[in-house]
Structures are given as C-alpha cells and as structure tokens.
Amino acid sequence: MGLWQKVSALLFEQPPTLLFVEHGKKVCETTKHFLTAMEAFSSGEELEEIKQEVDRWEHEADQVKHEIRKKLPRSDLFLPMARGDLMDLLWQQDEIADKAQDAVHLLGLLPLSLPEALHEIWERLIAGLRESQRAYCELITGLEKHLKGERQLAERMRELLLEIGGREHEVSTTEDELIAAVYREGSLDPFSKVHLVEVARTLGQVAGHMENAAGRICLLFLR
Length: 223
What we know:
Blueprint: H1 3-13, H2 15-43, H3 48-71, H4 83-109, H5 116-147, H6 154-184, H7 190-221
Helix pairs in contact: 1-2, 2-3, 2-4, 2-5, 3-4, 4-7, 5-6, 5-7, 6-7
C-alpha cells in the first residue's frame, strides 16, 4: 500500500466511511417506526408512543451525522472523493429521517378517520413506501459489506438502486392520486383537506430522498 492509500485509510476509510453506514441504520430504524405510524393512523390508533420512537431514532441519526461532520477532513486532499459529495449524501440520507419524522408529527396533530375512498389509496402508499424502505435498508447492509471487502455485492446494490427508483415513481404516482381523491372527497372539511395534502407531499419526499441517497451511495462507492 502506497503512502497516499495509507494516509487515506487512516484519515477516512476506517472511521467516517462506516459512520455513513451507521447513520443509514439509524435512518432505517426511524423509517420502520414511521411505517408503523402510517398503519396506526389508518386504523385510528394512538400515535404518541410510535412518535416517541421515531423521535428517538431520528435524534440518534442526528448524533451520528454530527460525528461524521466532525471527523471528515476539511480538505479533499485527504479524502478518496470530494467532501462536498459526501456531505450531499449525508444530507440526502438525513432528510429521509427528517421527512419521516415530519410526517409522523403531522399525522399526530389531526387524527382523522379516513373516508373509504381514500383508505385503499393510503394502503397502497404504505405498501410502496414499505418496499422503498426495505430496498434502501438492504442497500445500507450491502454498503457495509462492500466497504469491508465483499465487493461481489456491487451488482446487487445497483439492482437495488433501480428498484428504489421504480418504487419512488410508484409512490409519487400514488401520492398524486391521493391528493386528487382528497380534493374530490365531499366529507372532508377544507382544513382537513389541506392537512392531508401536506401529509401526502411529505410522504412523497421520504421516497424521493431515499432515491437520491441511494444514487449517491452507488455513485460514490461503487467504482
């Protein structure tokens, strides 16, 4: 191993790179409880305990984020890739947890009994987000193994990126369908309609940031 590789390994490869995986795992726990909250909302269940779990894991993700920021060298000279690219990945991944938390808080602010016309669309939205979350968390597991030398997983990680992109499209389409149904629903008052539209947009952002973060993971680490 040459001098450059030794310096890079000492300053970057061992601590901060795996911290991106650790951050991803916290984000996955946040989104797991986020999905539970979506299911509870559709069943009319209390969200407070689930919200506390979401808050706990989002906070833990933030703590790892701050640790990454402290450990990343300020100069690209000691990094195997641009610091700005890594910070963008960190931001995209952190936004998954942030938007999931935002969505759960919104759901808890105004408990609603979803009209029948919206219920089936809501269930499809949950299903799409669940599949996005599953694929993203598998990608994080694959990244951890890849960084530890199991490079044969690269092709599977690229497949997951394509899957996450496809799921994001499904979620976005279902999100638009839900919003249109909300506007048509005569049993909802105007404030409830605005509230549900805001919830739907936030849910779509969760899937969007999963796609963006997955793309950056593959671009940066699968070379």
